[in-house]
Amino acid sequence: MRRSEVLGELLRQSAHSQWRDCFRRRRPTDLAFTELLEPDCLLAVLNSYGRRHGANAPIAAVAGEWSKRYFARVMRPIATAAMLLDWRVTLTPADLSIEISGEGEVVSLGLTDFGHPVRAKSAEDRFDFLIRGNIEAVIRAVSEVSGLSRNVLWSNAGNLFEGIARGYAVDNDCPGAGVVDALALLELPQMADGSRNPLFRPILYPESDGQPERLRRVCCIRYLIDGLDYCKTCPCPGRHCSSGKN
């Protein structure tokens, strides 16, 4: 199979069909990904996205919600390919372009190549191209323009990553090496260079009524936006109050 067909084959599966049109070849007329990360451009994108939530929506909370959309659009299929296909795609900002809608949504990502198979040396090595190659830069830029804590943004990324890995582990009695690596990465307090692992245990499973309850370690603050309630994995003590906010 040609390299350019691997992601396509993955995304043709019904479970991943919503991301089918997200990846394509980079075009000269595209917005460079590095331009998106410039403060003025990124703030304009966040403001466009935030219009759906009204003029008074806090920019930090809007940024958190936008980051979830970005991670779902880009991180989910790429992490899935790394877990299931041992696949690595070039995701450094300098090698990407991006298409953003007038509403601030990520439409598609322009790639310089469609990746290649890898023989990962470790759990960290398998996902480094995604975490340090792309997510880290996005989180740094979003945090700087919005004031939202990087811990919240990493929690948003970690919540999604953990859900993907845990889902594949539950669905398979004997998960493959990629899924095993993903779960192992979530248990590493530090990276090989001694730096903190920002994806270390983003989700906790305390018991509630004798059953484990899936909760984030860090609140995503979406409840600060009028019309949005606490998310179902919110760790805040007031999440079960009748009004949804306190």
UniProtKB/TrEMBL annotation:
InterPro entries, per database record: Fe_iron_reduct (IPR008090), FhuF_C (IPR024726), IucA/IucC-like_C (IPR022770)
Domain of life: Bacteria
Pfam families: FhuF, FhuF_C
Domain Ferric siderophore reductase C-terminal as annotated: residue spans: 216-235
Domain Aerobactin siderophore biosynthesis IucA/IucC-like C-terminal: 65-199
Entry's Gene Ontology molecular function annotations: 2 iron, 2 sulfur cluster binding; catalytic activity
NCBIfam families in alphabetical order: Fe_III_red_FhuF
Protein name: Siderophore-iron reductase FhuF
Organism: Agrobacterium pusense
